[in-house]
Amino acid sequence: MDWSKFFIPTLKEIPIGTEAVSHQLLLRAGLVHMLTSGVYSYLPLGLRVLKRIENIIREEMNAAGAVELFLPVLQPIELWQRTGRDKTLAEVMIRFKDKKNRDMCLGPTHEEVITDLVKGFVQSYRQLPINLYQIQTKFRDEIRPRFGIVRACEFIMKDAYSFDKDKEGLKKSYELMYQAYKNIFKRCRLSPVIIEADSGAMGGDVSHEFLVTAPIGEDEVVLCPACGFASVEGDSRHPGQKCPQCAKEFLEKKTAIELGHVFQLGLKYSSALGANYLDEKGQEKPIVMGCYGIGVSRLIAAIVEMNHDAKGIIWPAEVAPFDVEILVLKTDEPQLMTLARQLEQELARRGLAVLVDERDESAGVKFNDADLIGIPFRVILGKKTLSDKTVEIKNRRSGAVQLVPVASAIEKTAECVGS
Ligand SMILES: Nc1ncnc2c1ncn2[C@@H]1O[C@H](COP(=O)(O)OP(=O)(O)O)[C@@H](O)[C@H]1O
Ligand SMILES: [Mg+2]
Ligand SMILES: [Zn+2]
To answer: Are residue 181 and residue 47 in the same domain, yes or no?
Structure first.
């Protein structure tokens, strides 16, 4: 892919009115663009990151036995009245009347829709358990959209819903999702703390939140620096108190960003909407539910928040928009352009995504932009390539530079990227 054709509108200056580093860098690197407060476009580079995160999530959800579907955003209020959440979620719900004068909303979440769907399909215990998920846009009229895509009014969530015969089944489904979430965050190079949380408006009893500590976090957790124990603040869990787990260190208070949330819902939605099944004895029982959400678009911001330096983003390999960036410093040298094309083709043949900066810009502009957009490895074709037949391979994270002969450039780059 050529830089000049790819639409990467980088910015030199920090956009005004931005507090979070991730917000600044995502705008400056041309990954997202603000249409209006809380509403963002994903530009080509940002979309590539989004798709890679989505794929990690898909792989882990599928491996855990969940099945993907796609539910409507447009939902009748009548359905929400049956669970009472037209009232409890009134603050965030975007409501309107359509031309047929029907009360509608844009889904802030999908428990009602999925429960209604499953109710019409599941009659017998033989059809359980099932776990259905989607990756979709949610709409929430956030009073205070903040930090760019961290808290937006339109954002992308992966939401999964499990349906079981009984509590035992729910515990198994929950455990599978809990483990899948750990895998997903690990692959995104995030190390969240996991805390037992308040289920709030969702209802149900057990719930866990996955959070990363960061200066821009809107949640607060108390943490043990020694053993990693984490909790919400509460009885015997205050900053300055001895860790209740290891008793070695004192608890500290930190701000944190919520990345994901898993809930054992129990019967709240199935009872309200009449989603029942017939058990082995022919008795009618409500389905036992769980729900599991990850803020997919928020993850992009969280990853940038944890992976950057003064010059720009440093993408972890698995979510990087490209694996390698080739910088051609003298685009008027046909030899260098030919070599760039050869490298691009060969690396692409090995399954690597390659961005070629072939713009007619100064080396300084190209280096700065490369640092800003943060592709893990860059291959530099310049003066030395012509004079000494060498190329430079640079690791964005460590800054380590290797000079390698042109003849082994493909092998060496592939080796660096690890493919
Ligand atoms: N306004 C938002 N913008 C971006 N991501 C969000 C927003 N609200 C929630 N999320 C993400 O969706 C996940 C699941 O949502 P949920 O737990 O229902 O949100 P909340 O805790 O804000 O009520 C959250 O863990 C978070 O990562
Ligand atoms: Mg939550
Ligand atoms: Zn401890």
So the answer is: yes
Q: Is the CB of 295 under 6 A from ligand 1?
A: yes
What does 67-123 look like in DSSP terms, one character per residue? EE----SEEEHHHHHTTTHHHHTTTT-EEEE-TT--EEEE-S--HHHHHHHHHTT--
Binning pLDDT at 50, 70 and 90, where does residue 234 land? confident
Residue 235 lies in a domain: no
* 218 CB within 6 A, ligand 1: no
Interaxial angle between packed helices 44-63 and 296-306, expressed in degrees from 0 to 180 and rounded to the nearest 10: 110
Domain residues for the domain of 130 are 3-222+248-309
CB atoms within 10 A of CB 14: 13
Place of tokens 């082995």: 280
Query: Hey, how many other C-beta atoms are within 10 angstroms of the C-beta on 39?
Result: 15
Q: Is residue 296 included in any domain, yes or no?
A: yes
Closest CA to ligand 1's atom 4: 151
- In the structure encoding, which two tokens stand for residue 378, read together? 């860059």
410 and 335 share a domain? yes
298 lines ligand 1 (CB under 6 A): yes
Q: Is the CB of 140 under 6 A from ligand 1?
A: yes
With beta carbons less than 8 A apart as the criterion, state whether 173 and 132 touch: no
Domain boundary among 282, 309, 336: 309
Which residues, at least 6 apart from 106, have a Cβ–Cβ distance to it below 8 Å?
73, 74, 75, 93, 94, 139
Ligand 1 atom with the smallest distance to the CA of 209 is 25
Whole-number Å distance, alpha carbon 44 to ligand 3 midpoint, is: 43
Q: Which residue has the CA at smallest separation from atom 19 of ligand 1?
A: 261
Mutate-to-test residue for ligand 1 from 50, 92, 138, 143, highest number of ligand atoms within 8 A of CB: 138
What CATH number is attached to the domain comprising 376?
3.40.50.800
The mean predicted confidence, pLDDT, of the chain is 96
Amino acid at 166: D
The DSSP bridge partners found for residue 260 are: 210, 294
Residues 237-296: pLDDT tens digits? 899 999 999 999 999 999 999 999 999 999 999 999 999 999 999 999 999 999 999 999
